[in-house]
Specification:
The chain is α/β, with parallel strands linked by helices. It contains 9 helices and 7 strands, in the order E-H-E-H-E-H-E-H-E-H-H-E-H-H-H-E. It binds nicotinamide-adenine-dinucleotide.
């Protein structure tokens, strides 16, 4: 079998580490050229870039705040200039600033909504015209099971992730006729820096609630992203795919 994403160009936000990195490497292994972003320069980001290049595909790394609209416009313009097209967009950049509602500050709310939800709007807004001209494209936006079910202590994060679902379904309805698909992945508990901050007790507590009895890995999410990016999902749009070991049914 040939590679699944041969000749495709993918933009992945927040891919220096964690889930975004796993998706970038998986797409690259299937032949896609990769443009990826992250917010602060780090050796990990450079290592990710080198690992992608070692898979024999073109790669370009951008240090940019995905929540900055003007920066997103110039970034995507550069991708089109350098790579010629945008076939796949993965809005993966995201942060948490957890706290109970009663203690949540306005800045905690604003930071999370901006980094998680506005960033996805920015990239969709700027990439969709490019995809329309091509008459094809696959958008994959990262939500969370928390965006579907809510979670005490994460009202800002859950709202941003529920917003991702509304954003994605609306885009799917608007641009399906132009050959563009838009879907959501809602991961459960995935081992990354984001969840690494949690205590051992809390992690064990979570694991008990997961029918598959383990935390997920970045690669578990990357497999689902590959499906949604590829022609295997040619008739799939506007969907929310939970990748959570059965945690939130
Ligand atoms: P992570 O913290 O390990 O990595 C986050 C990445 O996003 C980094 O590359 C960081 O540089 C980038 N980033 C953050 N803010 C950014 C900004 N404003 N602009 C550009 N890049 C930015 O996180 P992760 O666990 O890999 O999570 C990836 C995505 O998956 C997030 O959207 C997260 O909400 C979602 N998610 C994660 C889990 C989990 O259990 N880890 C569960 C559900 C959903």
């Amino acid at each position: 079998m040939g590679k699944m994403l041969e000749g495709k160009v993918a933009i992945i936000t927040g891919a220096s580490r964690g889930i975004g990195r796993a998706i970038a490497l998986r797409f690259a292994a299937e032949g896609a050229a990769i443009a990826f972003t992250h917010v602060t320069p780090s050796p990990a980001a450079e290592a990710t870039e080198q690992e992608i290049a070692a898979l024999g595909v073109k790669v370009k790394r951008y240090v940019a705040d995905a929540a900055d609209y003007a920066a997103t416009e110039s970034l995507v313009a550069d991708v089109v200039k350098e790579f010629g097209r945008v076939d796949i967009l993965v809005n993966n950049a995201g942060i948490t600033r957890d706290g109970l509602l009663m203690r949540m500050s306005e800045s905690q709310w604003n930071e999370v909504i901006t980094a998680n939800l506005k960033s996805a709007f920015n990239f969709c807004r700027v990439c969709v015209p490019v995809m329309m001209r091509q008459r094809c494209g696959s958008i994959i936006n990262l939500s969370s099971v928390v965006g579907v079910h809510g979670n005490a202590g994460q009202c800002n994060y859950a709202a941003s992730k529920a917003g991702i679902i509304g954003l994605t379904k609306s885009i799917a309805a608007e641009v399906g006729s132009r050959g563009i698909r838009a879907n959501v992945i809602a991961p459960g508990f995935i081992n990354t820096d984001m969840t690494g901050k949690l205590s051992e007790e809390l992690r064990a507590e979570w694991a008990k609630q997961i029918p598959l009895r383990r935390a997920g890995e970045g690669d578990d999410v990357a497999g689902a992203a590959l499906f949604l990016a590829s022609d295997l999902a040619a008739y799939v749009t506007g969907q929310v795919l939970q990748v959570d070991g059965g945690m939130a049914m």
